[in-house]
Specification:
The complex is a heterodimer of chains A (about 220) and B (about 325). Chain A is mainly α. Chain A has two domains: about 1-25 and about 40-145, no CATH class; about 145-220, Arc Repressor Mutant, subunit A, CATH 1.10.10.10. Chain A is built from twelve helices and no strands. In chain A, helix 1 (about 1-15) packs across helix 5, helix 4 (about 40-50) crosses helix 5 (about 55-75) and helix 5 (about 55-75) packs parallel to helix 7 (about 105-125). Classes of the chains: A mainly alpha (about 220), B alpha+beta (about 325). The interface between A and B is large, with 54 and 48 residues.
Chain lengths: ~220, ~325
């Protein structure tokens, strides 16, 4: 991939191939430390990249965090499309509003906060809940209270358990539709059922999940 | 309570496998400044270790890149690229301007002046637009304004040797012949100007001319009679005037070289200038001897043969 090459070039121009390698390998070593000040090599490397060339920095950031962020977002929205859109939006805003210029927290914290914010709002909108004020959505730099932070985790965990608790057939069809992004027609053909039945299963799953999310927001 | 939180505990928490008591511990741990960073750090680790799914990064990134580069209609396009483009355009514009100016500069000479030049062994007779006649000797250049009749003063530049027959115009516009060393100012007259080897010689045949040295404290001299001669050596800026036989300096127009009591050295110089060659003689003493007479100036071979006969020594062209 092009970005990797760019990253390598940058690392060489900065003068440390090792640093680039450290970016490549996940930071397992340092993650063993607990409680210490965690200014990881990654973050330093990315900061350096942003200083050299903003676009390169953004590319490296995308390269490094895109996959785990999508993986996290999908826990809320249960759709590849939505999850990827959410993450892309976050990166887009980060780039266009030049948040990297005055960021005081780590890139990782910024990105996870932003993705969780957007994901939460998305799932709330989807499940016809009142949306948290949009301010929170665009400025993820404001710190959250611990209980607020944990509310996000509770939400995706509830969605997860809600899906786990769906009747097997219903869950399978819901996941095929949402998670795998299959069309109703395809699912109907694969499951040997009518499109109408597929629709029924999906709407059933959604109504169950709606209840789950409702509970959460009432907490 | 000790609020140290392990990676494992957080992983369990992310998976939803913690007890309410453990959750409470995490909550109070999160209240400590700096722990949020660690929290997201472990969340990131957890997502990497137990991903819900793995997106196709390559496809998405190019999509994302395109979105930022191309489809952005909010005017928030990627600045570096825009700047690069702008710079490119500026360069193009600057290059255009430079080329145009160079073009104008280079062609301005062509627009304003006509240049004439002669090869070795060639003379050229010109009739200028103001009816002045110029005979250009070999290896000479003359620059004449294209619009000589429109100018207040007639001004030509000459390097080499030329005979001028300047026409008298009713409005009496001055005529200037400029050479690297001097300027000849005339009203209407016939005269010869030779500018060779950094020495300019002016010989008057008819009329009146003013000769002015080009050097800073240059002198000037007035030539009023037939045979008046002025010589300027620009190194000193001095003008030397004397009376000469004008025909010695003007017969070249008739394809003849006329000398009177000249050292053979200067005769040879004249031939060299005309033909663009270098002459050599086997007898080096002969060059200080004097020569008087007229040589036909049609054929270099014939001249050298004639000189060889007269001085009884070989004159050859250095190859």
């Amino acid at each position: 991939m092009v970005i990797k090459k760019k990253g390598k070039m940058l690392a060489e121009s900065i003068g440390s191939k090792a640093e680039y390698k450290r970016l490549q390998i996940s930071d397992d070593k340092t993650s063993e430390e607990v409680g210490g000040v965690l200014k990881t090599d990654n973050e330093l490397f990315l900061k350096e990249a942003f200083q050299k060339d903003e676009w390169l920095g953004c590319s490296l950031l995308f390269e490094h965090y895109y996959a785990p962020l999508c993986s996290h977002a999908i826990r809320y929205v249960y759709s590849r499309e939505y999850a990827e859109d959410i993450v892309a939006e976050v990166f887009k805003e980060f780039w266009q509003k030049k948040h990297f210029e005055n960021i005081t927290i780590s890139f990782r914290t910024y990105l996870y906060r932003a993705v969780r914010n957007r994901s939460l709002n998305h799932s709330r909108r989807e499940f016809k809940q009142s949306v948290v004020d949009e301010q929170d959505l665009t400025i993820p730099s404001s710190a959250l209270r611990p209980d607020e932070m944990m509310m996000y985790d509770q939400l995706y965990q509830k969605i997860q358990s809600g899906i786990d608790g769906l009747p097997p057939k219903c869950r399978k069809i819901f996941l095929m539709s949402r998670f795998e992004g299959k069309k109703l027609k395809e699912i109907a053909a694969l499951q040997n059922i009518s499109i109408r039945t597929v629709e029924t299963h999906i709407s059933k799953a959604l109504s169950i999940l709606r209840e789950v999310v409702k509970d959460n927001s009432q907490d | 309570m000790n609020t140290k939180i392990h990676k494992q505990l957080l992983f369990q928490y992310f998976s939803g496998n913690t007890t309410p008591l453990e959750n409470a511990r995490i909550e109070s741990w999160l209240g400590v400044e700096g722990n949020e960073e660690i929290f997201y750090r472990y969340l990131d680790d957890w997502e990497r270790e137990y991903p819900q799914y793995v997106p196709n990064k390559a496809v998405v990134f190019s999509k994302f890149e395109n979105q930022l580069y191309v489809k952005d209609t909010e005017g928030l396009t990627k600045q570096p690229k825009a700047i690069r483009l702008l710079l490119k355009r500026w360069w193009a514009l600057a290059a255009c301007v430079v080329f145009m100016m160079m073009g104008i500069y280079l062609s301005s000479d062509w627009i304003l002046y006509k240049n004439y030049s002669t090869e070795y062994g060639e003379t050229m007779t010109l009739m200028l637009d103001d009816k002045s006649q110029v005979v250009l000797n070999a290896n000479s250049e003359l620059r004449v304004p294209r619009w000589i009749n429109l100018a207040d003063e007639r001004e030509v530049w000459m390097d080499g040797e030329a005979f001028f027959k300047v026409s008298k115009k009713a409005n009496k516009r001055k005529f200037f012949v400029r050479t690297p060393d001097l300027t000849v100012e005339v009203l209407g007259t016939k005269f010869n100007v030779s500018s060779r080897h950094k020495v300019t010689k002016v010989v008057l045949q008819e009329g009146k001319v003013k000769v002015k040295s080009n050097s800073i404290n240059g002198e000037h001299a007035l030539l009023e009679e037939n045979g008046d001669y002025a010589e300027v050596d620009n190194k000193v800026g001095k003008i030397v005037t004397k009376k000469v036989d004008e025909s010695l300096y003007t017969t070249w127009q008739l394809k003849r070289l006329k000398f009177e009591n000249s050292e053979l050295k200067s005769v040879m110089q004249s031939i060299e200038d005309y033909y663009g060659v270098q002459l050599n003689t086997s007898d080096t003493n002969v060059v200080v001897r004097k020569f008087s007479g007229t040589l036909p100036n049609d054929d270099l071979e014939a001249i050298l043969k004639a000189l060889s006969n007269i001085y009884n020594t070989d004159f050859t062209v250095v190859k």
